């Protein structure tokens, strides 16, 4: 069983495009171990509450709350006491810190260029790479 952290960009995309690639990643992680941090969950919720997304996609506060509860139920929490300082963006360090704390095998993100390819046993991969890995 793999230990996986999904970046907030994957979790937001899974919510707003239920038949897209990110949703497939989220569904596939269900047979493995998903880890979240309070930071990642907060980023997801803040993004989903943003008016620009709400104007483009039609969803309610209740749907956001239901998704938040689903994520909390599906994931184990990993809240690192300290964060690595390897990414230029502190938010990316927080995501990488979650993956490191969770001893994740993979961090799945669309922003691989913002992360090292590997960090402390965590491999950073794209959604496409993750789905290919699972198929092989």
CATH overall fold name: Rossmann fold
Into which percent range does the helicity of residues fall?
40-55%
Number of strands: 6
Strand order within the widest beta sheet: 3-2-1-4-6-5
User: Please, what is the average pLDDT?
Assistant: 94
Q: SSE string, helix = H, strand = E? A: EHHEHHHEHEEEH
C-alpha geometry: globular
Please name the fourth-level CATH homologous superfamily.
5'-nuclease
Strand content: 5-15%
Number of helices: 7
CATH architecture: 3-Layer(aba) Sandwich
Provide the structure class.
Answer: alpha/beta
Q: Using only CA atoms, what is the Rg?
A: 14 Å
- In the CATH scheme, the class would be Alpha Beta
List the helices and strands and how they pair.
Elements: E1 3-6, H1 8-16, H2 21-29, E2 33-36, H3 38-49, H4 51-56, H5 61-74, E3 75-77, H6 90-101, E4 106-108, E5 118-119, E6 122-125, H7 127-135
Parallel strand pairs: 1-2, 1-4, 2-3, 4-6
Antiparallel strand pairs: 5-6
Salient structural properties:
136 residues, alpha/beta, Rossmann fold, six-stranded mixed sheet, 6 strands
Task: Please tell me about this protein's structure.
The chain is an alpha/beta fold. It has one domain: 3-Layer(aba) Sandwich (Rossmann fold). It is about 50% helix and about 15% strand. It has seven helices and six strands. Strands 3-2-1-4-6-5 form a six-stranded mixed beta sheet. α1 (about 10-15) packs across α2 (about 20-30) and α2 (about 20-30) crosses α7 (about 125-135). The longest helix has 14 residues, at about 60-75. The two termini are about 15 Å apart.
């Amino acid at each position: 069983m793999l230990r996986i952290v999904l970046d907030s960009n994957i979790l937001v995309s899974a919510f707003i495009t239920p038949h897209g690639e990110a949703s497939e990643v989220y569904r596939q992680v269900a047979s493995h171990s998903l880890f979240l941090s309070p930071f990642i969950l907060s980023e997801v919720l803040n993004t989903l509450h943003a008016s620009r997304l709400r104007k483009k996609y039609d969803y309610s506060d209740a749907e956001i709350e239901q998704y938040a509860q689903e994520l909390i139920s599906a994931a184990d929490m990993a809240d690192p006491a300290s964060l690595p300082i390897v990414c230029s963006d502190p938010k990316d360090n927080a995501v990488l810190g979650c993956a490191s704390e969770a001893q994740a095998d993979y961090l799945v993100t669309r922003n691989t260029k913002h992360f090292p390819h590997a960090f402390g046993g965590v491999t950073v991969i794209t959604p496409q790479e993750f789905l290919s890995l699972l198929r092989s």
